[in-house]
Amino acid sequence: MLAVRKARRKLRMGTICSPNPSGTKTSSEVCNADWMASLPPHLHNLPLSNLAIPGSHDSFSYWVDEKSPVGPDQTQAIKRLARISLVKKLMKKWSMTQNLTFREQLEAGIRYFDLRVSSKPGDADQEIYFIHGLFGIKVWDGLMEIDSFLTQHPQEIIFLDFNHFYAMDETHHKCLVLRIQEAFGNKLCPACSVESLTLRTLWEKNCQVLIFYHCPFYKQYPFLWPGKKIPAPWANTTSVRKLILFLETTLSERAPRGSFHVSQAILTPRVKTIARGLVGGLKNTLVHRLALISVYPLRFCRRS
């Protein structure tokens, strides 16, 4: 699988349209919302790991709360600076990597979601939140939004990759997994051989959700897939040239069997990048470089 995660804007597979302001759906939007169901029959029996699956990076970060405490994923130095109100406003500009909600991403065709979660200091009800520097929406709210879409589009399959956990003990993990069970129920796909998973087999079992859990806690639940089944090599660069080379190399070196593979087509700002574009934020600093990256998925599909 090529789950391409695009920061700063949605990934395009074919043509992915922005939401229509009028509220009506164009034919392209309808197609993207049901693109798996619309695939030709000869692909229905192909292992999912052989399909190119569009995804998003920090998928939940279309909204972050600048009034909340700074997340436990940040250093003590950042936490001290964040006592100044302006600092959180600047952090918000660098924490938001998406501009579409879960529902809008799903309607645009996104099927892989990069998820980072955390408990919140002083929150006594064990609620879990999405996190990227600042706290996002409650995980439960996001899961319910996703489940609503899946109920209306029963042949679409999604990958939820819970890959970072902060300030979470066993009680928090149990709470999160219970939320996942409550949200998706029988839509959850039990962990099994990657090669055995095809669209047809999932449709026959009415399974729509694969949960990847990068924590030993996955062993306690049959519907949690180990994180090693979906490696996501990270280039950690601001250079488009280095990123493309990295993607080409890691894709060619991926394991031939036994796992999916995430190609992170994202640019990562350095400290000096943030310093230079502090006020402008992520959107105004790196987005203009994405045009050069956007052709990468098409290059891969042509080769395949």
From TrEMBL:
Descriptive protein name: Pleckstrin homology like domain family B member 2
Gene name of the encoded protein: PHLDB2
UniProt-listed PROSITE patterns: PIPLC_X_DOMAIN
Domain of life of the organism encoding this protein: Eukaryota
GO biological process entries: lipid metabolic process
Phosphatidylinositol-specific phospholipase C X domain ranges (all copies): 42-214
InterPro entries from the UniProt entry: PI-PLC_domain (IPR051057), PLC-like_Pdiesterase_TIM-brl (IPR017946), PLCXD1/2/3 (IPR042158), PLipase_C_PInositol-sp_X_dom (IPR000909)
GO molecular function: phosphoric diester hydrolase activity
